[in-house]
Each structure stands twice: as structure tokens, then as C-alpha cells.
Amino acid sequence: MNARQIFFFDSMLTPKIITFVYWLALFGSVVGGLVSMFAGYGGLTFGKFLMGLVVIVGGAIGARIYCELLIVLFKIHENIRKLAEKA
Predict the structure, then answer these.
(1) Domain for residue 3, yes or no?
(2) Which of 9, 11, 14, 31 is a Cys-bridge partner for 5, taking CB atoms 3.0 to 4.6 Å apart?
(3) Is 0.85 topped by the overall pTM?
(4) Which domain holds residue 33?
């Protein structure tokens, strides 16, 4: 990717950033789930363990869906651009 592509919007930079944001959100959901499992008094209980699993799984699924929806917008843009170039 050269400077012309970046400054004149010939290619999209955001899809690459979205991938990084996805991995960051995935890491955050795992850390958040582990913190909810082990935080507070009383140690690890069954309820806190289940809540931590819900945070990990729900966060991973939510991050994936959110990032996929953003990527779909850019795929639509690419396909419309291809159609416009054909016409």
C-alpha cells in the first residue's frame, strides 16, 4: 500500500484495523471473563465460574458479529465499485 492509495482513498485501510479491533475485543472478553470468575471475596464459586464463561463466550460472539457486520459494509463497497468499473 503506497501513499497515493492512502491519501486518495484508492484502497480501504479500515478493514485491516477492524481485524486488529476484533482480536483486541476477543482478548478483552477473555480477560473480563477471567476477572469476573476470580474477583471479589469467597474465591471461585460455581456461579462466578458460569458468569465468567458467559462473559467469555458472549463477548467472543458479540465481537465477532460486530466486526463481521462492519466488514460486510466494506465488501458491499468493493462489489459496488467493481460494478461501477464495468459500466
Answers:
(1) no
(2) 11
(3) no
(4) 15-79
Q: Where are the alpha helices (DSSP H) in the chain?
A: 3-7, 14-38, 46-86
Lowest mean pLDDT among 8-12, 32-36, 74-78, 83-87: 8-12
Are 41 and 68 in contact, with CB atoms under 8 Å apart?
A: no
Q: How many structural domains compose the chain?
A: 1
Domain-embedded: residue 1: no
* pLDDT tens string 43-60: 888 999 999 999 999 999
Going by C-beta distance under 8 Å and a sequence separation of 6 or more, which residues neighbour residue 58? 29
Q: Are 51 and 29 in contact (CB under 8 A)?
A: no
The reply to whether 85 falls in a domain is: no
Residue 72 lies in a domain: yes
Which residue is listed with cell 477471567?
A: 34
Cβ partners under 8 Å of residue 5, min gap 6: 11
Is residue 33 packed enough to be buried (19+ CB in 10 Å), middle (13-18) or exposed (0-12)?
Answer: buried
